[in-house]
Amino acid sequence: MDATAAVPSDAIVFDGLRKTYEALEGSIEALGPLSFGIKKGEFVSVLGPSGCGKSTLMLVAAGLDDATAGAVIIDGRPIKQAFTDLGIVFQDHALLEWRTILQNVMLHSDLRKIPAKELLPRAMDLLKKVGLEGFENRYPFELSGGMRQRAAICRALVHAPPFLFFDEPFGALDALTREQMRVDLEKLWLDRRQTVLFITHGIAEAVALSDRVVVMTSRPGRVERIIDIDLPRPRSSAVLASPEFVGYCATIKDIFSATGILKD
Amino acid sequence: MRKRQFLDAVGPLLALAVLFAGWEAAVVLFGVSEIMLPKPSRIFVEILDRAPMLALHAASTVTIILSGFMMSVAVAIPLALAISFIPIVRRVVYPIVVFSQLIPKIAIAPLFIIWFGFGVLPKVLITFLISFFPILIQAIVGFTSIRPEPIRVARSMGAGAFDMFLRIRLPHALPNLFAGLKMSMAAAAIGAIVSEFIASSRGLGYLVLVANGEMNSPLAFAGMMLLSLIGIVLYFAVELIQRVATPWDIAQRRSTPN
Fold it and tell me: DSSP state, A217?
């Protein structure tokens, strides 16, 4: 068994996953073949250059797009339709502009038919935790990009899902907001230790958040290397200033240089 | 903020008053004959003098406008749904509908008299034909312009087709739907007048035509002024419903400059 292969006990297994798109001039290889696993309660980032198919990887895992070949297996069941036992966050906050912040977080109540009474205390608690207290009845357009994304994260967490999928959730935010969001996300995650698939193109972001980083090749995205991040949590600013953290980032940079993704 | 709201409400009325005053003054100052251009005050007197007769014609016109408009809504929205969500309908029916808009509708209106006689039906049909396209196009834009992310979020919450429509696609389409309704209402007012020009013995369109023929400009202007008033009232009735139905959209439009 090679180093990247998944083990059967993994919560999420990518097994020979491949995705091609039909285009005018034949088919385009977008992703894979690729195999790896994510353990239960593990925070795994998929890190790669833009266009490597990492967003497609997440959509396929969530059952929102079909694989051309191979399979994604979550808790032993192959994904064939939209997987609903998860919270999902996109780069675009995807809040519904006709609903207030609280109504957006409570969307589960309408779509999953969960009684609002059950969901409301946790929704209020989460909004408070991410600093949106007092903004419950505002519409998304009244909030800043960072605040909208915080609301989207609350929406992904409110029904206490065992899985969390993120597709470049901080991609549209400024550097400072990004930094704070990362700290807050780790705090929220440490509360419940969900199994996380986190798609990003930020090296430091991936290292700072993850238990393991899956480094991808450029298109069609394959697994180049999987790196265990052995740093203490929470990842305080002291941890992020440590030689170990800097070393992990340098290792990944070297991989991108060696594969020609980063050039001097 | 309050000052701005006050200005929003009173500003247009004030502008209208200034316009009428200028019109009145110009007619008096330059000695324009009543047949060329009656004074606004003369028109208002005409409206008051002939109120019962004008009301009868206005009622007939409003009936045609509303019947044609409701027929447009009843046909355009289901058709927009079919075109938006059934690929074969989109490919086959949509081009025909667009093509039908290239036919000069006013030119074929007389044909409707031949086909459907002189009753209410041809007038409602002409009104419908002129007013149904804006609502159809806006409804299609509303139903199809949604970004993939909200749909994906809803799918990952297990939303069925019914909830997906009711909770995601329909609210997203509402601002466009209302834009289409307002355009269609304005078009229906025009359609009703056209239909009354062509074949009628009743309605404000007919009245304006007859008054013009008799060189009775005050009465013609009285009819036109009532037609404008009816158009404005119906348009703002839709606007009012929109404000209640889509508070987020109104607030968003108000908060962005321009």
Answer: P
The complex's ipTM works out to: 0.89
List chain A residues with CB under 8 Å of B166.
none
User: Which of A92, A99, A110 is opposite residue B147, by nearest beta carbon?
Assistant: A92
Task: Give backbone dihedrals phi and psi of A82, rounded to 5 degrees, phi first.
Answer: -50, 125
Please check whether residue B245 touches A, CB under 8 A. Answer: no
List the one residue out of A74, A75, A143 whose CA is nearest residue A105.
A143
H or E stretch at A17 = strand A12-23
A98 inside 8 A of chain B by CB:
yes
Please, which residues have CB within 8 angstroms of residue B214's CB and are 6 or more apart in sequence? Answer: none
Contact B77, B134 (CB under 8 A): no
CB pairs under 8 A between A and B: 68
Q: Which amino acid belongs to residue B234?
A: L
pLDDT tier for residue B40 given thresholds of 50, 70 and 90: very high
Structure tokens, B197: 């020009």
CB A151 within 8 A of CB A105: yes
What backbone phi and psi angles, to 5 degrees, belong to B31? Answer: 60, 45
pLDDT at A1: 40
Q: Who among A62, A96, A142 is closest to B156 (CB)?
A: A62
Those residues whose C-beta lies under 8 Å from the C-beta of residue B82, and which sit 6 or more positions away, are: B89, B93
**Rounded Cα distance, A173 and A79, in Å:** 31
Separation between Cα atoms, residue B102 and residue B183, nearest integer Å? 18
Tell me what pLDDT residue A5 has.
58
Q: Which pairs count as long-range contacts for B28-34, CB under 8 Å and 24+ apart, including other chains? A: B34/B217, B34/B218
Q: What pTM does this model have?
A: 0.85
Strand order in the sheet with A163-167: A86-89, A163-167, A195-200, A43-47, A212-216, A223-228
Tell me phi and psi for residue A32, to 5 degrees.
75, -165
User: Collapsing DSSP states into helix, strand and coil, what is residue A232?
Assistant: coil
Q: Do B157 and A111 touch (CB under 8 A)?
A: yes
Distance from CA of B254 to the nearest CA of A (A): 12
What are B187's two structure tokens?
Answer: 């078009």
Q: What tokens were used for B221? A: 């202007």
Q: Are A126 and A158 in contact (CB under 8 A)?
A: yes
Per-residue pLDDT tens over the stretch A130-153: 889 999 999 999 999 889 999 999
Nearest CB to B150: which of A62, A84, A94? A94
Separation between Cα atoms, residue B166 and residue A96, nearest integer Å: 13
